Amino acid sequence: MATSKVERLMNLVICLLSTRQFLTADKIRQSVAGYDESASDEAFSRMFERDKNELRDLGVPLEVGQASRFGTVEGYRISPEAYALPEIDLTSEESAAVAIAVQLLESPELGSAAQGAVLKLRAAGVAVDRESAAALFTALPARARGSEPALEAVLAAIEAGRAIRFEHRSARTAPVTTRHLEPWGVVTHDGRWYVVGHDVDRDATRTFRLSRIGDEVVPVGPRGAVRKPDGADLRALVGRAVGTAWVSGAATVWVRDGRAHELRRLGRPLRPMTVAGRDGVVLDVPVRSRDWISRLIAGYGEDALVLEPESLRSDVIARLTVAAGGAR
Fold first, then answer.
1. CA–CA distance, 280 with 272 (Å, rounded to integer)
2. More confident call, 57 vs 198
3. How far apart are CA 185 and CA 197, in angstroms?
4. Given a cut of 50, is residue 98 above it in pLDDT?
5. pTM over 0.70
6. Backbone torsions φ then ψ of 162, nearest 5 degrees
7. Tell me, which fold does domain 5-134 have in CATH?
8. What residue segments make up the domains of the chain, in order of their start?
9. Per-residue pLDDT tens over the stretch 229-241
10. Per CATH, the architecture of 148-242 is what?
11. Packed helices 5-17 and 108-123: angle between N→C axes, nearest 10 degrees
C-alpha cells in the first residue's frame, strides 16, 4: 500500500525532530518511509522539494546546515526548541473538543507507531536524540482519565445538548449511586478529567471526576435541551470543587547536570546542589500552569526534583507513583 502524503510528512517531521545532526537528502530518502517509493532520483527530488515547502508553509522551522564538517553537502533538521508550541490556554469549549483528539493520540496503536518509527531511524543509522524522541510520545500513562466509553458518551451528550444518567462513586470505598446530570463541559485539571454541569437530583452545580463514573453513561431527554449558562467558567468551577490553592507563580527545581534541558531553558540558575551523590543546579522556574509544569518535571524522572512549593512536589510524586504502577 502506498504511503499517504500526510503519513510521509509525519515521518519526515519525526525523523528531523529526532536527531541533532543535519541529515542529507540521500539519508532522508533511505530513512523516511514514503520516499523509497520514488521511481527515480528526479522524482524523489521533486517530492522532497514539495514536502520541504509544505512544511515551511505550515510553520515548521526547517533548518539547513552542513551535514559534515568535512564536506559541503547540505543537510536538514528541525530544532525541538523552535518547533515546540508555547503554553496554550484553551476555553472550556476548546478543551472539550481537544478531549476527543486526545483519545486518538493516546491510543496504543499510535503510540506504538511513533516508537516504531524512531526505532527504524536508529536502525538506519540516524543518530536519534533520546530526549527529543521521548517528547514525541508521552512516557507517562494517561492518569485518571476514566473509561473511554464514558468519556465518549459524555462528550456526545454535551454536543447533542442532552442530560445523562450514570453510576458514580464519590470515593473508591463509597457505595455506587445513580446520578442525573445536565452536562455543560469536560475539563482537565491536574491530569484528571472532570465533567461539570447541573445536578438534577440536588438542583445544584456539581463536578464529577470521570474516573469515578461507570462505563455506561445513558443520554436522557430531548436533544438541545441542555446548554451551558452564559458566563459559566468551567475551569474555575472545577478549581473550587477540588480545592486547588496553588495554580501559578514560580517553582524551585533541582536538575541533574547535563539533563532536563527544557527546564534549564525555562529556569534561572540559583545555586549548585548535590542530591544523592549527583551534581546539579537549583533553578527558579516560572510557572503559569501547574498541570503543565508537573507533567514536564515528572517526565524527567530522577533527573529533576521539586524543592518548592510542596503542593507541586506532591503532584509530581503522585504522577510518578501512577507511572510506576502502570509499568509493572
1. 6
2. 198
3. 7
4. yes
5. no
6. -115, 155
7. Arc Repressor Mutant, subunit A (1.10.10)
8. 5-134, 148-242, 249-326
9. 988 888 778 877 7
10. Roll (2.30)
11. 60
User: What helix, strand, coil percent values describe the chain, rounded to 5?
Assistant: 45, 25, 35
Other Cβ atoms less than 10 A from the Cβ of 305: the count is: 21
Q: Matching CATH topology for 148-242 and 249-326?
A: no
**304-308 β-sheet, strand order:** 268-275, 278-287, 249-256, 304-308
Cα distance between residue 71 and residue 105, in whole Å: 40
| Position 142 pLDDT exceeds 50 | no
In sequence order, the 6+-apart residues with CB closer than 8 A to the CB of 158 are 96, 183, 184, 185, 186, 226
Task: Count Cβ neighbours within 10 Å for each residue of 235-274 and write b for 16 or more, e otherwise.
Answer: bebbbebeeeeeeeeebbbbbbeebbebbbebbeeeeeee
Other beta carbons within 10 Å of 134: 16
Query: What distance in Å separates the CA atoms of residue 310 and residue 161, rounded to the nearest whole number?
Result: 40
